[in-house]
């Protein structure tokens, strides 16, 4: 069962300008330490490459806030939504604080929430799409990726792809 869908498109140059203008204040307010570490690994490739990493994560947070149905209000803050990578490298979202609580209220009893995320960029644009799905506990992703296996108030994300039907 689909609980929410969100997408966002952002101009990478806009994020690059915000970083240049506001610096650490901007980065600290919007991005988790894990996101910042990942972006800074691109520093040798230049400011545009770093901005592209941040722009995709910015778009993912916007898309997830839309999928939650709250935007950035009702206790959902930028740093409550963190883009991480699963063990196999897929981008996923970890929801904490108000975002995690909102996800818990959206999820019907007896089901687990799974958050699917896809990111892309084609400069100067970056895009993210988020789908929040409720699945039965037996069909949920492995423990590291299901909402029920995360610490209280958090969820991280992506179920394995279903097998193709004949």
Structure description:
Helices cover about 35% and strands about 25% of the residues. The strands form 2 sheets. The protein has a 3-stranded antiparallel sheet. The radius of gyration is 16 Å and the shape is elongated. β4 and β5 form a beta hairpin. It starts with a strand and ends in a 30-residue tail after the last strand. The chain is built from 5 helices and 5 strands; from the N terminus they run βααααββαββ. It has one domain: Ribosomal Protein L22, Chain A. With about 170 residues, it is of the alpha+beta class.
What distinguishing features does this structure have?
166 residues, alpha+beta, Ribosomal Protein L22, Chain A, three-stranded antiparallel β-sheet, two-stranded antiparallel ribbon, 5 strands, 35% helix, 27% strand, disordered C terminus
State which percent range the strand residues make up: 25-35%
Number of domains: 1
Order of helices and strands: EHHHHEEHEE
On the 0 to 100 scale, the average pLDDT is 87
The percent of residues in helical segments reads: 25-40%
Radius of gyration: 16 Å
Largest sheet: 3 strands, antiparallel
Structural class: alpha+beta
Count of DSSP H/I helices: 5
Low-confidence stretches: 142-166
What is the name of the CATH architecture? Alpha-Beta Complex
The CATH superfamily is 4'-phosphopantetheinyl transferase domain
Per the CATH scheme, the topology name is Ribosomal Protein L22, Chain A
Can you tell me the overall shape?
elongated
Distance between the termini: 22 Å
CATH class division: Alpha Beta
Order of strands, main sheet, comes to 1-5-4
In total, how many beta strands? 5
């Amino acid at each position: 069962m689909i609980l929410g869908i969100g997408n966002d498109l952002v101009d990478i140059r806009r994020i690059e300008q915000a970083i240049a203008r506001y610096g650490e204040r901007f980065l600290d307010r919007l991005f988790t330490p894990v996101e910042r570490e990942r972006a800074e690994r691109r520093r040798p490739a230049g400011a545009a490459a770093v901005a592209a990493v941040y722009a995709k994560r910015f778009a993912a947070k916007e898309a997830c806030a839309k999928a939650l149905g709250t935007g950035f209000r009702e206790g959902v803050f930028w740093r409550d939504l963190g883009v991480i990578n699963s063990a196999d490298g897929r981008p996923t979202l970890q929801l904490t604080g108000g975002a995690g609580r909102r996800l818990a209220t959206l999820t019907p009893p007896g089901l687990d929430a799974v958050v699917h995320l896809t990111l892309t960029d084609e400069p100067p644009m970056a895009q993210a799409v988020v789908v929040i799905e409720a699945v039965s506990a037996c069909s949920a992703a492995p423990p590291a990726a299901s909402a029920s296996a995360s610490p209280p108030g958090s969820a991280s994300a992506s179920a394995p792809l279903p097998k193709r039907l004949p």
